[in-house]
Amino acid sequence: QNLTPPVTSPPTAPPTAPPTVVVQDYNQVPATEKLVDIRSVNLNIRLDIRYATTNNFLKKKIYSVPRCLLRSDVAQRLSRVQQDLEEMGLGLKVYDCYRPLSVTRQMWEILPDTRYVANPAKGSRHNRGAAVDLTLVDLRTGAELEMPTAFDDFTDKAARDYTGNAPQVRRNSDLLAVKMKQQGFIPLITEWWHFDAPGWDKYGLLDVPLENIR
Ligand SMILES: C[C@@H](N)C(=O)N[C@H](C)C(=O)O
Ligand SMILES: [Zn+2]
Does ligand 1 have an atom closer than 6 angstroms to the CB of 116? Predict the structure, then answer.
């Protein structure tokens, strides 16, 4: 008869979610965590800031200025992706960077689906200045490389594990993901264009309009 008591592992604490801190006063943000304009870091990254136009799923111009603002560390990482791609004759075109929390609330009213829009109760990594929506372009002509869908096409076809793409389309979206991952970015499974920056959880949620960031 075996009298050895069964080995039980100690109960593990549930994973703790990062605190949902909304920074009320941008002046209180430490200098090292301020948002920077990508144009002050790398002038070769192209911009097509869709929420500053009516060419977006809200069919409304949400931003008054077409700016790509990111935490400094995130902007530096993105710049390194651009430099890396340039060696292949390619570059980045950015659709969205920092996004105020109130804009995420507007999006959630239209599309309350966490596959495609972050729940504003938790906030988006865009609200932390630590996520970016983007695609690849030909460095010389600026022409977009063919990707699985258009930006913000909220269907299964936009998912990274969608298997129905033509081989070249698959290669293009995989190349974007590989180059972003090499600089630490984390791809979102449901949207080929969205990447979170490592350490996004150390930044608070912001609700400052883009035009107010100096
Ligand atoms: C709305 C879309 N462009 C996007 O960024 N979705 C993710 C999930 C987000 O809202 O953070
Ligand atoms: Zn995004």
Answer: yes
ipTM over 0.95: yes
- Say what the pTM is: 0.92
The tens digit of pLDDT for each residue in 29-70 reads 999 999 999 999 999 999 999 999 999 999 999 999 999 999
Residue pLDDT, tens place only, 120-135: 999 999 999 999 999 9
> How far away, in angstroms, is 132 Cα from ligand 2 center?
6
Residue 196 CB less than 6 A away from ligand 1: no
Give residue 75's identity as a one-letter amino acid code.
Answer: A
Strands 194-196 vs 131-138: parallel, antiparallel or unpaired = antiparallel
Count Cβ atoms below 10 Å from residue 98 Cβ, excluding itself: 29
Task: Give the burial class of 5: count Cβ atoms within 10 A of its Cβ; 0-12 exposed, 13-18 middle, 19 or more buried.
Answer: exposed
Chain-centre distance of CA 188, in angstroms?
8
Return all residues near 74 (Cβ < 8 A) that are at least 6 apart: 129, 130, 132, 197
For CA atoms 148, 152, 156, 160, give the dihedral sign: positive
Distance from residue 173's CA to the centre of ligand 1 (Å): 17
State the ligand closest to the CA atom of 114.
1
* Cβ 118 under 6 angstroms from ligand 1: yes
